[in-house]
Amino acid sequence: MATTVHINDFASLVGTHLGYSDPYTVTQEQVNLFADATGDHQWIHVDPERAKSGPFGGPIAHGYLTLSLVPTLLGSVLHVDGTSMGVNYGTNKVRFSAPVHVGSTIRAGATVAEVTEVAGGVQVCLDVVVDSEGAAKPNCVAQVVYRYYA
Predict the structure, then answer these.
(1) How far from 87 is each of 46, 56, 96, 105, 144, CA to CA, in Å?
(2) Which homologous superfamily is 3-149 in?
(3) With contact defined as beta carbons under 8 Å apart, do 146 and 126 qualify?
(4) Could you read off the pLDDT of 81-92 as tens digits, one per residue?
(5) How do the domains of the chain map onto residue ranges?
(6) What are the pLDDT digits (tens) for 44-82?
(7) Is the pTM of this model over 0.85?
């Protein structure tokens, strides 16, 4: 269940874990489309037969595909009220610490790390951890930055 926050109440949530996203399964079709969009057709991503004998035992998602799913995953974690719009402002730090195997189910957890007032709204830094079933460590750890405007 998503946490609903009014734009004016973010500052009180610094240090608060907001919860976990709904599960999300990464498919080979999605990986292939991402490869087409980015031009990254490395065999560990797009050649399932060859990838079986590779270092990961099968095809894996691109790290940046995993990162690009963060806004989708966060949609089931956080809803912000009192805004005219929100924008993805960037990332402060990203690490891809374990591969996301094609067919695996991932989820994201989010903690409010920092809130800063900006003209017309707030800038919110969220510490996000993406993990998958059976993984020994997180797949992606990132601090993402959003701006919400009243």
Answers:
(1) 31, 35, 23, 26, 11
(2) Hotdog Thioesterase (3.10.129.10)
(3) yes
(4) 999 999 999 999
(5) 3-149
(6) 999 999 999 999 999 999 999 999 999 999 999 999 999
(7) yes
